[in-house]
Please model this.
Amino acid sequence: MSEIGALAVVMAFVVSTYGTVMPLLGAGLRRGELVHSGLRAVYANALLLGVASTAFLYALLTRDFGNAYVAGYSSRDLGFWYTLSVFWAGQAGSLLFWAAVLAAFSALAVWRLGRLRELIPYAAATLMGTSAFFTMLLTFVSSPFARLPVAPADGAGLNPLLQNAGMFFHPPTQYLGFVGTAVPFAFAVAALVTRHLDDEWIRATRRWTLAAWFFLSWGLIFGMMWAYVELGWGGFWAWDPVENAALLPWLTATAFLHSVMIQEKRDLLKVWNVVLIILTYVLALFGTFLTRSGVLSSVHAFATSSIGPLFFLFILLVLGMSFGLLLTRLGALRSQGELDSLVSRESGFLFNNLIFIGAAFAVFIGTVFPILSEAVSGMKISVGPPFFNQINVPIGLTLLVLMGVCPLLAWRKASPGHLLRSLAVPGVTAVAGAVALLAAGIRQGTALAALTLCVFVTAAIIQDVHRGAMVRRGHGETYAVALGRLVARNPRRYGGYVVHLGIILLFAGMAGSAFGTERDAVLARGQTVTVNQYTLRYEGGGTYTRGERIITEATLTVFENGRLLTIMRPQRNVHTGRDEQAMTEVAIRTTPREDLYVILAGMGDDGRVNLRVIINPLMMWMWIGAGVLTLGTLIAFWPQAAAAAQTRSRRLAEAA
Amino acid sequence: MDVVAMVLLVGVVGAIILTPLFRRSGFVSLAGPPAPGGQAGRKTADALADLAFDHATGKLTDDDYAALRSKVAAAPAASAAPLSLPAEVVDPLEAEIRAARRLRRSCAGCGTALPQAARFCPACGTPVEGRR
Model:
C-alpha cells in the first residue's frame, strides 16, 4: 500500500507538470486536443492525490510504524480521531493534505467553470503549477511515505498540545481556506493573460472566494478556541506570528469580497481587485510558509522544518510573475466608470478597503519586524501585543462605524438629508445603549466605544432590513413573506448583513476582554480567593498518573455571592513521553454574561496551589457570533431567486 | 497484488490524459477581449433596480433618483461594439445558420414563418403540409 502511495505522489508531480505545460501549449498553438489533454491531467492529478491520501490514511489507521511519518507522530494509545488528525500534524502530511485539497479544488473548478473556454487553459495551468510545486516537495524533500529501516514497536506519539478538538478542526479548515484562494487567483491570472478583464472572472469565482473566506474565518475561530481552552493564556489571541499569518489573507480576502461588488456594479477598481486577489493568495502561501518554516518563533514552533527556502522562492516567483503580468496589462485595465459622488455606497466600500489594507499592512510589518530588525541592526526585536492593539483598536472601531453607515448609503450618490434621517434611529439607539452600558458599570473607554458601535451597527442593519421589507409590504405581502422574499431576491446583500451581525458579536466578545479581571493567588487547603462576585475555595488536590500523563489537579468550590455555584477542577499535565512537556488544562465555567476561567499554574510540595483566576466577559458571544457568521455565509451562498431575473428584464423594458 | 494495482494506476491515468490527443478537437477562440455589450444590458437593469430600491427605502430624494435614473438609462448600453471574430470561426457558424434557415418552413396560405413543431399556421390557421 505504501509503495502505491509513493508512486501516486511521484506520478502526481509528473502529471501536474504536464497539466501546467499542456494547456499553455495548446492555447498558444491553438490546438484544442492539447488543452483537452491538459485539462484531463487536472482530473488525473485529483485521482492520484486521492489514491496517495487513501494510502496515507491506511498507513495511519493500521499504525504502520515502518512509515517514518507514522512512527514520528502516532502511537498505539492514540484514539481514532486523533490518529486521523495525525494526517496534518506534521510537515509531510500537511503538504500532502494541501496538495490533495488543491487537486480536488482544481478538478472541481475545471469541471464547474470549464465553460469559460478562454480562461480555463490558463487557470488550469496556474493551478497545476502550484500543484507541481507541492508534489515536488512531496517527492523530493518531504515524503509522507518514507520508510524506516526498522519499524519500532510503537510510535513517538502526537504532541499533546495538538490533542484537542480545536486542533482536530483548525488545521484542515485553515488549509481549506488557504488553498481555496488559489482558485480565484488562478482565474485572475487567466483574465490577465487573455485580457478578458471584465468582471467575468469575478462572477465565475464568486462562490469560491466566499467559500475560501468562510474557511479562513473558521480557521481563525478554531484557532482561537484552541488557544483559549488549550494554551492556557487566558485569552484567545496573542498576535503570535502564525496567528497573524492566518489573519493576513483573511483581511485581504474580506477587502476583496467587498471591492468586487464595485467592479461588478460600476466597472471600477479592476486593477485593485486583481492586486487584492494576488495579495490574498500570496499571503495564504506566506501563512503556510510561516507555519512550516520556523522563520519566526511562535506557538506553532512544533511545525518547523527545512522546506523554508524553497517555499520562500516559490512565493517570490508567484509574486514576481503575477505582478509582472499585471504591469503589462495596466493599459487594458483602465476603468470605464467613475465615482458619481463621494457620499455613496461605492466610496464607503472603497474606504473599507483602505482600512482593511491598512490593517493588513500594519499586521504584516509587526509580524515580520523581527526579520527586518535583524537584517538592519542584527538584533531580532519582536513587537508585542501592545503594538498590534494600539494600531488595530482604532482600525476596528472605524470598521464598525463603516459597517453601520454603509447599509444606509445609496449606490452612486446618497442624498445627504436622507442619510441624516436614516442615521437618526441607529444613532439614538446607540446613545441609549451607551447610557445603559455606563449604568451597567462599564467605564473602560475602548470597550464602551466598541459596544456602543455594536449597538449602532445592529440598529442600522435592522432598520435597513425593515425598510426593505416595508417596501415589499407596500405591494400587499405580509411582513414575514416580504422579509423572506427580500432575502431571497438579494441573498448576497442580506447574507452579508447576517455575517456583519456575527462580526458584531465577535467584536462584542473582544471588547469584553478589555474589561476582564485577572488575579493570581496562592492558596493552602481551605483558603479562598475572591474575584468580583466569585469566591473560590481550594478544597484539596493531588497528583495521579494516567497513561503517559502525570496529572496534577486542584479541586475548587465556587461560590457566587455566598451561594454554592459549582466545582471546578483545573489541571496541569506533564507528558512523560514528550520531553516532560507540561500543559495546562484550564477549567472554564461559561455563562452568557462572562466566563470564569481558572488556570492551575503549579502546586508546591507543601500542597499549596498557585492559581490564576480570570473573568472574561461576553466570551460566549464570540462563539455564538461564529455561528451567526456561518448562517450569513450560507445565505450569501444561496443562488439568487429566479424572480430577481424577471424583475431585471421588466425594469430593462421599462427603461427602454 | 501491489504491483498489479500500480500498473493499473499508471494505465488508468495514462488513458485519462492521453486519449484526447488522439481525437482532434477544434479550437474555438474569441479573439481579443469580449465586447461588453452582452453584460451592459444586465448591468443597466441591475443599476436601475438598485436605484429604485434605494429610493423606495428612503436613501435617495426624488430629485436625486430622477437624475441618477436618467443618467443610468442613457448609459452606453447601446454602445456595445459588435463581436469581431476570425473568419474560421464565423464562416462555419454562418453556414450552419443558413442551412437552418433553409429548413425553416413558412405557411402555404399566408407566408408566415412557422415554428418547428407547428401543425397549423399560428396566423391564419391553415394546416401545415406534411403534418397530420
About this structure: The radius of gyration of chain B is 27 Å. Chain B touches chain A through 53 residues (CB under 8 Å).
